[in-house]
Design goal:
This protein has two domains: 171 residues, Rossmann fold (3-Layer(aba) Sandwich); 98 residues, 6-phosphogluconate dehydrogenase C-terminal like domain (6-phosphogluconate dehydrogenase C-terminal fold, Orthogonal Bundle). 49% of the residues lie in helices and 13% in strands. It contains eleven helices and nine strands. The protein is globular. The mean pLDDT is 94.
C-alpha cells in the first residue's frame, strides 16, 4: 500500500508521545498517508516529533487539525479520552473514522455510545498491546506494533464495516488484530497488564533504598514497568478498578499458597507451585 492508494490520506494523531509517535512513524515510513498531523499542547514536544520523523505536520489546535483528517487516532491517557472524543466528534467531517490507543475500554466505549445517535464520526475503540515505560517522541519506534496484538473493541451498535476499516488500519502498521468486547478486554488486561504493574510497583516500593546496590537482573526486570508515568497508571488502575482488584486477589492467593509452603517447609509443594509457574511462563516463549 502506498500514499496514492491509502484510504487515510491525512491522519491526525492526538497525543504524540511514545505510542502516538510510534504510530506516526509507522504510518509515514509505510507510506500509508500523505500527511500525519501531530496534535498536542506543547510546541516544543511537537517540534521534537517532527524532528524525529514521527509526524509531518503539527497543530496546537485540535479542531483545526482533525477537520482535515480522514482518520483520527487518540493516543493520550485514558482519563482524557472521552472528553477528547467529544471535541473531536464536533470538529470532524461527517463519516470520519476515529480510533484510540487507550489501555482501558469499558468507560471509553460507554461514553461514546451514550451519544451515538448524534455523532458525526465513526469511532471504533482499540488498544495496541505494545509499549514501554519510556515517554515522549524520543521513544518512538516505527516497528513498535509489528507482531504485537492490537485489540479492537466495538460497541454493541458499531457497524461491522467500521470495525473492518479500523482493523485494516492497525493491521497495516504490523499488528495482529483481535476483536473483543470492551468488558472482555478490561478483564483480560487487568490480569496481564494492570495488576502486574501494581505488583511491580509494590516490589519497588517495598525494597529499602539501602538494598538497591544489591539488585541485579531479576529485581530490575520484575520492577521495570514500575518506572511508568504514575499519573497515567493511576488513571488506568482506577478506571478498571473492579477487574484490577479481582486480578490482584488472584495474585494474592497464589502468593499465599507459596508462603504457606515456605512457612511449612514443604519443599515438594513449593517445587510443584514453582514448576507450574515456570510452565506458564515458558509457554509464552522468550
Amino acid at each position: 500500500m502506498n500514499a496514492d492508494t491509502a484510504p487515510w490520506p491525512c491522519v491526525a494523531i492526538v497525543g504524540v508521545g511514545m505510542i502516538g509517535g510510534s504510530l506516526g512513524k509507522a504510518v509515514l515510513q509505510r507510506r500509508l498517508a500523505d500527511r500525519v498531523i501531530g496534535v498536542g499542547r506543547s510546541a516544543a514536544s511537537l517540534a521534537e516529533a517532527v524532528q524525529r520523523g514521527a509526524v509531518s505536520d503539527t497543530s496546537l489546535d485540535l479542531a483545526t487539525a482533525v477537520a482535515d483528517a480522514s482518520l483520527v487516532v487518540v493516543a493520550t491517557g485514558v482519563a482524557a479520552i472521552p472528553t477528547l472524543l467529544d471535541s473531536i466528534d464536533a470538529a470532524v467531517r461527517p463519516g470520519t473514522l476515529i480510533t484510540d490507543a487507550g489501555s482501558t475500554k469499558n468507560s471509553i466505549v460507554a461514553a461514546w455510545e451514550r451519544s451515538r445517535d448524534t455523532r458525526r464520526g465513526r469511532f471504533v475503540a482499540a488498544h495496541p498491546i505494545a509499549g514501554s515505560h519510556r515517554r515522549g517522541p524520543a521513544a518512538a519506534d516505527a516497528d513498535l506494533f509489528v507482531g504485537r496484538v492490537t485489540v479492537v473493541t466495538p460497541g454493541p451498535h458499531t457497524p461491522p464495516t467500521d470495525v473492518e476499516a479500523i482493523s485494516r488500519f492497525w493491521a497495516a502498521i504490523g499488528s495482529t488484530v483481535v476483536t473483543l468486547s470492551p468488558a472482555e478486554h478490561d478483564t483480560i488486561l487487568a490480569r496481564t497488564s494492570h495488576a502486574p504493574h501494581v505488583v511491580a510497583a509494590a516490589i519497588a516500593a517495598a525494597t529499602p533504598a539501602a538494598d538497591r546496590r544489591f539488585t541485579a537482573g531479576g529485581w530490575r526486570d520484575t520492577t521495570r514497568i514500575a518506572a511508568g508515568d504514575p499519573d497515567l497508571w493511576a488513571d488506568i488502575l482506577l478506571d478498571n478498578g473492579p477487574a484490577v482488584a479481582a486480578a490482584i486477589e488472584s495474585i494474592h492467593a497464589a502468593s499465599a499458597d507459596m508462603l504457606a509452603a515456605i512457612t511449612a517447609r514443604d519443599r515438594s509443594r513449593l517445587v510443584s507451585l514453582l514448576a507450574r509457574a515456570k510452565e506458564e511462563r515458558d509457554a509464552l516463549g522468550s
